[in-house]
Each structure stands twice: as C-alpha cells, then as structure tokens.
Amino acid sequence: MRQPIEPGTRLWEDTGLVTFSLTTGAAFALQVMHPSVGAVVGEHSVFRTDAIGRAERSIASVLTWVYGGPEALVEADRLRALHAPLRATDAAGVTHKALASGPWAWIILTAPYAYTVAARYFSRRPLRRDEAEQFYAEIQQLMRNLHVAEKEIPPTYADYLAKFDDILEHTLVAHPTTYEFLAATRRIPPPPALPPVLWPLWRAAAYLPGRVQHFVTIGTLPPKAREILDLTWTERDERRLRALGRVVGLVMTVLPERLRYLPIAYEARRVDRAQRALRRTLARRPR
C-alpha cells in the first residue's frame, strides 16, 4: 500500500539534514556501477554539463518523497513517468530500460547503505542494529511509493544486507559512467547559464568543494566498490575522512534547525509543529 512518510520517522528526522549531500555521491556512484543504470544515465543524464542543477533537482525530488505528504506520491508518479521512455544500448548491443524492475529497485536499495555510512562518519555515533532495521522498514514503504516491484524488496534488513552484498559482488562493474561522474565531482562543471568569461572564477571557487566532495565520495564507497573501480584508499585517507566526519558531527550538534536541515525539510518540520500546536490549542478551546 502506498502512503506518505509520516513525521517522527527516521526518514523524517534524518533525510533532510545538510549532511545528506555528503553521501549522495557514493549512492549515485553505486547506482551507475549497475550496467543498466550506468548505460541509461550515461546516455540521458546532464551531470557532465549541469552537475549542480542535476544534484539540486535530485535532492529536491528525494526530499519531496519524504516531506511532501500527498505531494510525495505525485512526485513519485512524475518521476516514474519521466523515466518510462528512457532506454540505452550499450557497446555490446544490449538494450537497457530505466524502469526495468531490478535496476529501478537498485536506485532505492543504495539508500540504506548511504544512511548507515553517513551515520558512521558524520554523526556522533553509528546506527544501532535496531535503528538500521527501523530505517529499512521505512525504506520499504518508500520503495512501494516509488512503484518498486514487490519481488525486488528484501523482506528484512538481514535480507537487504545479503542482497546488497550479492549485487555488489556479482552485478556492479567499473562502468564508464561512474568514472565520468567521479571526474565531475572533482572538477565541478560551471552552470550552463554562467557566461564563459566567468568560468575561471567558477573553477577557482569550485576547486576546494570539488576536492572535498570527490574525497568523501570515494571514502564512503564500500571497499569492494573501490576495488572494482581500482580506486586507491589508504589508511591515511581513512583517518582524514574520520577527522573530517568528527568536525562535521560536532558542528551539526550546535547548528540551529534552520541551518541543520535543507529548506524543504525545514519547512515541512516547521509546518508539522505548527499543525500540532493548532491541534493542541483546539483541544483546549472552551466548549
């Protein structure tokens, strides 16, 4: 049954945090390592020329799935309709469809991994097993909202972990689209509307954020994925990532809610509080 995500869930509490963007890179890299996803994204996505715009639209869509209420289901339907005609033929002559049940499910199946790795590095403590199981139960609802075939939804968190490892071991490949995406994270292309005369300024301004995003994306990939992609990750790199994560986790504890959450999430949380306050006031009204 399809139903919007409710306030008070782990998805509601965690999805809209500004740290969400830190692990979207690893999730997207895992997605395009899937041969079908990599082929379709490689042919149709604009991440090479409009990386910022693509990321903004993708994050807004995900936040709508979680915080949109009834609009969440409308957005899920819109997204599926948008992807319905998308297909691509790879170098071996195999045609891939965006809405094939396995690849479509894999897009969402990267989410529990991204959330657990975000908690491991960028919060004050990693998720406990019971918290991860609760989160996965909510992801199951999200998958149903997005019309993922029931056969593709592992019934338990343990089944999810087994399926994730199986896909990682036997399905994912060093897809050319993945390398192009990683290159775009390191050297973020200027927005299409930016006049060419300002491109040098853009490159200078985007240099450090690009290096950080590239570093975090590689560091938050599963070791097996780095092995498939032949990416180097040293013990020193791991120490640097953990140090960065401790700083981020500390900063997140002192930020006000307006800065801790992305705008869609903040507004949804604010409206929910206002509605609950109204209900309390109505319950106390004179009769």
What can you tell me about this protein's structure?
The chain has helices spanning 10-14, 20-33, 35-44, 51-67, 70-83, 101-122, 129-145, 157-170, 176-186, 199-219, 223-229, 235-254, 257-260, 263-283; strands at 87-89, 95-97. With 287 residues, it is mainly alpha-helical. Strands 1-2 form a two-stranded antiparallel ribbon. A hairpin with a 5-residue loop joins strand 1 (87-89) and strand 2 (95-97). Helix 4 (51-67) crosses helix 5 (70-83). The longest helix has 22 residues, at 101-122. The relative contact order is 0.16. The mean pLDDT is 94.
Question: What key attributes describe this structure?
Answer:
2% strand, 287 residues, 2 strands, two-stranded antiparallel ribbon, mainly alpha
- The protein's oligomeric status is single chain
Reported for the largest beta sheet, the result is: 2 strands, antiparallel
Strand order of the largest sheet: 1-2
Percent helix, as a range, is 55-70%
Mean pLDDT comes to: 94
Our count of domains comes out at 1
C-alpha-based Rg, rounded: 20 Å
Q: Give the overall form.
A: globular
Strand fraction: under 5%
The parts where pLDDT drops under 50 for at least 5 residues are: none
DSSP summary: helix tally: 14
Helix/strand-derived category reads: mainly alpha
In angstroms, what separates the terminal alpha carbons?
A: 39 Å
The string of secondary-structure elements, in order, is HHHHHEEHHHHHHHHH
Give the strand tally. Answer: 2
